[in-house]
Design a protein that fits this description.
By secondary structure, the chain is of the alpha+beta class. It has 2 domains: 309 residues, 2-Layer Sandwich (BirA Bifunctional Protein, domain 2), CATH 3.30.930; 93 residues, Anticodon-binding domain (Rossmann fold, 3-Layer(aba) Sandwich). It is built from 14 helices and 23 strands. Strands 9-10-13-11-12 form a 5-stranded mixed barrel. A 5-stranded mixed beta sheet has the order 20-19-21-22-23, sandwiched between helices. Bound molecules: adenosine-5'-triphosphate (ATP) and magnesium ion (MG).
């Protein structure tokens, strides 16, 4: 990728209405633009980050044997009537009618649709367990959309669903998903914690949330000395008090603020019973299927990652989700053919080695280029000017500190792959 042909959309001005740092930096660094309340377009840099997060999630879902599907975002009201949630869900459900006056909603979650999908195709217990996931847009008409994509109305969620003949199988798979979630958040290189949680209006018997730790988080987490956590609602029930201070003092817990980025549930037979998803086992006993559901807020992870990884100059991406692995900053390449040729040589060399590299060959001042890339937050930077070109070397700099070192062409590759 060459920056001269790649619109960066960085902004000089401070975004006026952004309350938290991730929202501000996503606008300034040109990751997203607001369309309307709680709805955002992803610009090239933002979409690259989103795609990298999705790739990690896909790899870990595929690794446990969950298969990817894609369901329509507009859902018929009949399915929601069957589950009882057409009335229960309230104003967060965006409802609409088609030209025949049939009622629909824009999917905030997919338990009804997937239960319907599976019941139409299931004809033997031997097909079980079934594990499916999708990565798609969800719409929730949040009462107060805020903090940019952190609490949006339209956002991208990975939602997985599992179907089982009995509880033992659900229990086993719940643990498999839990492990996969831990792997995902470790690969994302984020400081996170898993807590026992409340099932909310999704329903079911057991649930766990995954939180990225950040001072701007909206959730109160209570974590013990072994790192085991519960969220505040569960703590209130368990310790029978509303006083967070009392719970913390009496139980020697730590109070942390978290951003909920994942939530997994044992749904049991809530949807299979109301929507009649059942099957006979080998001895002709009827079973309503046991279900699990497993969500990750894919777009919210971007904001959470920035809350945790930034400084006064901009974002500092963990390598796993950076829009590029490395940026080459060419100094005055438009004025000097040798510099242009050498920059291109380094660029081609890295491209051949499958390194995700962008060459900043814009006709712009070095200061402006450095400013943009500090803001965007690519973790590694190679600077090429006249001295470097004469000596066939580059100046190598990490985004996270101010040290610089000279590297020859062989060493560049080594620092980029570690
Ligand atoms: P919250 O408590 O933050 O409202 P939730 O409990 O309603 O979230 P779930 O139904 O568990 O959310 O959805 C799964 C995941 O989707 C959440 O863990 C979160 O990361 C993400 N998510 C939910 N609502 C939003 C939203 N309005 N904007 C962005 N991401 C969201
Ligand atoms: Mg939740």
């Amino acid at each position: 990728m060459k920056a001269s042909k790649y619109p960066l959309f960085t902004q000089k001005n401070e975004p006026a209405d952004a309350e938290i740092i991730s929202h501000k930096l996503m606008l300034k660094a040109g990751l997203v633009r607001q369309q309307s309340s709680g709805q955002y377009s992803f610009l090239p840099i933002g979409l690259r980050v989103l795609n990298k997060i999705e790739m990690i999630i896909r790899e870990e879902m595929n690794a446990i044997g969950s298969a990817e599907i894609l369901m329509p975002s507009i859902q018929p009201s009949e399915l929601w009537q069957e589950s009882g949630r057409w009335d229960d869900y309230g104003p967060e459900l965006l409802r609409l009618k088609d030209r025949h006056d049939r009622e629909y909603c824009v999917g905030p979650t997919f338990e009804e649709v997937i239960t319907d999908l599976v019941r139409k195709d299931l004809n033997s217990y031997k097909q079980l367990p079934i594990n499916l996931y999708q990565i798609s847009s969800k719409f929730r008409d949040e009462i107060r959309p805020r903090f940019g994509i952190m609490r949006a109305r339209e956002f991208i969620m990975k939602d997985a669903y599992s179907f089982h003949l009995d509880n033992n199988c659900l229990d086993k798979w719940y643990e498999v998903y839990k492990k996969a979630y831990n792997k995902i958040f470790e690969r994302l290189k984020l400081e996170y914690t898993m807590v026992d949680a409340d099932s909310g209006n999704i329903g079911g018997s057991k649930s766990n949330e995954f939180h990225v730790i950040a001072s701007t988080g909206e959730d109160d987490l209570l974590v013990d000395k072994d790192g085991v956590g519960i969220n505040f609602e569960i703590a209130q029930e368990r310790y029978q008090t509303d006083s967070i201070e009392k719970i913390i003092d009496e139980n020697h817990l730590l109070h942390k603020k978290g951003i909920e980025v994942g939530h997994i549930f044992k749904l049991g037979d809530k949807y299979s019973k109301s929507m009649k998803l059942n099957i006979l086992d080998s001895e002709n006993n009827n079973h309503f299927l046991q279900m699990g559901c497993y969500g990750i807020g894919v777009t919210r992870i971007i904001a959470a990652a920035i809350e945790q990884n930034h400084d006064d100059n901009g974002i500092i991406w963990p390598r796993s989700i950076s829009p590029f692995d490395v940026v080459i900053i060419e100094i005055d390449g438009h004025k000097n053919e040798n510099i242009r040729n050498f920059s291109n040589e380094v660029y081609e060399m890295l491209m051949k080695k499958d390194i995700d590299v962008i060459l900043d060959d814009r006709n712009a001042k070095l200061g402006n280029k450095l400013h943009d890339w500090e803001l965007i937050g690519v973790p590694k930077c190679l600077i090429i000017g006249k001295t470097e070109t004469d000596n066939k070397e580059v100046t190598y700099k990490l985004r996270a500190d101010s040290n610089k070192e000279k590297l020859n062409l062989i060493d560049i590759y080594n620092v980029l792959i570690d």
